[in-house]
Amino acid sequence: MKLRDWLMPIESPPAVFLIRLATGGIFLSEGIQKFLFPAALGVGRFTRTGIPHPAFMAPFVGTVETVCGALLLLGLLTRLAALPLVIDMVVAILQTKFPYWLEHGFWAAAHESRTDVAMLLGSLFLLAVGPGPISLDARFVEGSWRQAISHLPRS
Fold this sequence. Notes:
By secondary structure, the protein is mainly α. The chain has helices at 3-7, 16-36, 38-41, 43-48, 54-74, 78-104, 106-112, 114-129, 136-142, 144-149. The chain has one domain (13-149). The longest helix is centred in the middle third of the chain and has 27 residues, at 78-104.
């Protein structure tokens, strides 16, 4: 598959928009909340859960979630935006939900991790299928963007 085709395919169905809406909207909201409520959801939470360098990591993660969530909502550079969100969710699950599982058992952890797992799967889905035809990516591929990326190397 060519790099340019992987970056901006539009062959997926229009319903992909719904996955982008849910996944991007939640990431955007959660990213902003890390800045609005730092004690509960930002630096304070990162400190309580033992994430190293919480004063750096909380704003970094908040920025990634905000920017990449907005990109998903717009359908702009969708696959590139989904990749850091996959990493974000894998780290979040391993850092917060796995220890919870060890302490409280499977069912309690399954309940507590339902949003994280849904966000991980939504991000993986968008990474796999791309933005769909209702996206800025599709608009750019159909127009001048295709010319701008035509020089990318073929793999």
